[in-house]
Structures are given as structure tokens and as C-alpha cells.
Amino acid sequence: MAKHYKWEPRFEDVENNPYLNDFYQDMPRWSFNLQIYFLNKRLQQTIEIQSGNNVVIQDRTIYEDAHIFAPNLHEMGLMSTRDFENYISLFKTIRSQIKAPDLLIYLKSSLSTLVNQIEKRGRDYEDNIRLDYLKQLNQYYENWIENYKDGKLLVISVDNLNFADNKEDFGKVVQKIDAELFGLF
Fold first, then answer.
1. For the segment 47-95, what is each residue's pLDDT rounded down to a tens digit?
2. Are 79 and 35 in contact (CB under 8 A)?
3. What domain range is 21 assigned to?
4. pTM here?
5. Options 26, 59, 127, 178, the catalytic residue
6. Any catalytic annotation for residue 150?
């Protein structure tokens, strides 16, 4: 997408994350630390984006941590109520200081598609991801998107699309984005 639209890409930094490996080895111990790390990094990224002049596309937003990952960890008993409430309080303070994305693009997929994508990435630390964890994350995403009111939203079902490797599928995604951005098609 970044190449096609000449947008500046901003990716989640998974290579330099000092908590990710530990988190997947011991989720209850490291869940709060990991979520604070992500919140801080996404806040830094959001501030850079909002103070710059470039059009940017992010692979994750600051909202996902607060609406999906932290609540999922809490519900699964992998983050204490005290830590979760502290995290949400901090997020609300941060949220009051930043703007929502101009357009949120949600790539909707089934659990089997998610598992296939994770396997395709081949990241060692993701080998231990629990299926129940992924299932609940997916449900949290669905609930969040269903109630998203902060700005423009485009939902693209990707279960039957391989837009990374298939030009025709990529074209379908571009058409949907163009329609949302420019009112075309």
C-alpha cells in the first residue's frame, strides 16, 4: 500500500522489542510491561505522524492495544486488574491528546487465516502463541470495529484475498481504498 500510494510506512517494531520474547514465554509476568512498551512506542509514532507533513500508513494503531490486546490479556487472567486499570487510565489520558487516524483500514480475517499468516512470517517467538489467545484477540477486534466511531473506517475481508502476492487481489483492495478516499467506483 505504501508503495502504491507513495505513503510513508510505519511498522510495529518487533525486532527491537525487549519484552516480546519474554512475553510469549511467560504472559502473566510480562503482559503489563509489554503493553506499556507498545503504548509508549505507538504514542511516539503518533506524535511524529501528527507533527509531520507526510501521509503515513501504520500497520498498527495505538487504539488496538487498549481495545484489543490489554483487555484480552486481562480477561484471560494474564494481566492483573490493578495493572489493567492503570493501563486503561493511562491510555485515556493519552487518547485525549491525540487525533484518530484519517482512515482506519481493518483487514478482517478468520482464525485459520490468522494462523496461516503467523506461520508464513516464521517468527520464532510466535511459535508458542496459544490458539485461545488468538481466537479471543480476533473477537476483540470484531467487537472494536463494530463499535468504532472515532473516524472513517474501511473493512476489507481478506480470507479470500492474497493481495501481497496476487496483483488482481491487490487491485481489489486498492479499489476499495480509492472508493473510501476519493469516492471512486
1. 999 999 999 999 989 999 999 999 999 998 999 999 999 999 999 999 9
2. yes
3. 2-182
4. 0.84
5. 59
6. no
